[in-house]
Structure formats: C-alpha cells, structure tokens
C-alpha cells in the first residue's frame, strides 16, 4: 500500500531540509520526482534521487513569480506527462514585531506561502480530477494552530494553508483526490537557525517538547509517504502534526 512506483511527485522547496528529505522519501518509495526550484541549486537533490534509481527533473520556477507559478505544471506535463502527487513545501519567513512588520514582507510571505500553494493545488487538481486520482500534501506548521512571536505573516499564511487544505478536500474528496497537510513542529533547519542559536529560546523550546529534542528532516519521511500512498485513501482534509508532542503539552 505504500508503493509509489509508476507515479510522479512534484515537490517544491526541495533544495535542502524538509523538502529534500520528503523528495528522497517519495523516491525511496518508488516515485519519480519533479523538483520545482528557483535555480539549479536543487541539482544535489536530483543527484541523490537518481542514485536511488529514480528519474528526477529540476523545473525552474520562482515561487514568488505568479506568472511562472501559473504555468509551471505545463512544464511538468512536458517532462513526465502526468502529476500524481504534489507536495507544497516551499516557503519563506520574515521576522519583525507586529507594529513594525513591513507591508512588503507581509505581501511576500502571503504570496509564497499561501497564494502560490493555492495556484499549484489548482493546477495539479485539474490534472488529478481528469485522471481520477491524486494526492496533495500541503506543509503547514504548528503555527497553523498557534500565533508564534514576531511572525504574523507566517502564522497567517500557515493558518490559511490548513483551511485551504480542508476546503479543497471538501470539493475534491469524492473525485478521488486526497488533500491533506503535515504540520511540522520545531525542526532543525536553516529557517530555525536563529532560534537554535538563541540559548534561552532554544532551552524553552526543548523543555516543552515531550520528545526532548528538535525534529530533523527525516522525521517527515514516513508521514509524507503515508499521505502520498494508497494507505491514506480514506484520509481527507487532515492535518498530521509531526512535532514531538509539542501541541499536546
């Protein structure tokens, strides 16, 4: 039920970190991979996937450029002829106290972390509906449930991503399309480097995580394969938290 051979997965933000680990997990399960990346920097991930014996293509797309985003699935069609799985992982972060948060930063974060997610879901959804099957996995956050500090745009976008996931699931579940989300907790990635380096904040975070450690990218592998596979065929509109127990504390 977890076999993905013969399927094509589109993954954004797979140059490193969580996206790279999830792309590798899907390839390990048998899928061929289309990496949407702003530059050829995803070539390292491409090489790792090809070493697993799977096909991988890097398709250039700046997730902040809506004109590119609106047409990128046509390039996936040209390369692979189909889209079976979409993982919307790519995103950006901007930090500033709310009273000082620049409007430009707000627009940038909402565009990349929410509008682009919708546009990619919409494009993939059309193709999946036509073929009668598909899996969409949006990457949310524990900040989809909590407000966080000094990240108002990110919290708003990730909250929106969860509601978008549920809205699409309502429309597409009966058409054979599973739309779900994964909400990672505090992960040891480049985006969280500032928190890791803040001794006081790092200690506070660790004290609250029941698992007693930060997550790492490999912790998402099982979750993404489950939601991409036949094993989750009756799972719709769900947000799977992978947080070491953070939200349950």
How would you describe what is shown here?
- This protein has 249 residues and is of the alpha/beta class.
- It is built from eight helices and seven strands, in the order βαβαβαβαβαβαααβ.
- Strands 3-2-1-4-5-6-7 form a seven-stranded parallel beta sheet, with helices on both faces.
- Helix 4 links the parallel strand 4 and strand 5.
- The mean pLDDT is 96.
Descriptors for this entry?
44% helix; alpha/beta; globular; 249 residues; Rossmann fold
Short description:
The protein is an alpha/beta fold and 249 residues long. It is built from 8 helices and 7 strands; from the N terminus they run E-H-E-H-E-H-E-H-E-H-E-H-H-H-E. Strand 1 (8-12), helix 1 (17-28) and strand 2 (32-37) form a beta-alpha-beta unit.
Taken from the alpha-carbon principal axes, the silhouette is globular
Computed CA radius of gyration, to the nearest angstrom: 17 Å
Could you give the count of β-strands?
7
Strand order of the largest sheet: 3-2-1-4-5-6-7
Q: Tell me the CATH superfamily.
A: NAD(P)-binding Rossmann-like Domain
What composes the largest sheet?
A: 7 strands, parallel
End-to-end CA span: 33 Å
């Amino acid at each position: 039920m977890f076999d993905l051979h013969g399927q094509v997965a589109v993954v954004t933000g797979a140059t490193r970190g969580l996206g790279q680990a999830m792309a590798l997990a899907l390839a390990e399960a048998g899928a061929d991979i289309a990496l949407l990346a702003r530059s050829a920097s995803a070539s390292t991930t491409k090489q790792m996937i090809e070493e697993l014996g799977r096909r991988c293509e890097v398709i250039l797309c700046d997730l902040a450029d809506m004109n590119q985003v609106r047409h990128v699935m046509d390039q996936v069609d040209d390369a692979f002829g189909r889209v079976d799985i979409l993982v919307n992982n790519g995103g950006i972060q901007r930090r500033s106290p709310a009273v000082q948060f620049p409007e430009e930063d707000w627009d940038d974060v909402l565009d990349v972390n929410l509008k682009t997610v919708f546009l990619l879901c919409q494009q993939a959804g059309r193709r999946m509906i036509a073929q009668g099957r598909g899996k969409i996995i949006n990457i949310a956050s524990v900040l989809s449930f909590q407000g966080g500090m000094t990240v108002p745009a990110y919290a708003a976008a990730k909250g929106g991503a969860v509601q978008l996931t549920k809205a699409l699931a309502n429309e597409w579940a009966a058409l054979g399309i599973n739309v779900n989300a994964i909400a990672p907790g505090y992960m040891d990635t480049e985006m969280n480097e500032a928190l890791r380096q803040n001794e006081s904040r790092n200690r506070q975070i660790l004290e609250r995580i029941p698992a007693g450690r930060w997550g790492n990218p490999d912790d998402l592998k099982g979750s993404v394969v489950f939601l991409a596979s036949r094993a989750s065929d009756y799972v719709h509109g769900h947000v799977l938290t992978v947080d070491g127990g953070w939200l349950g504390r």
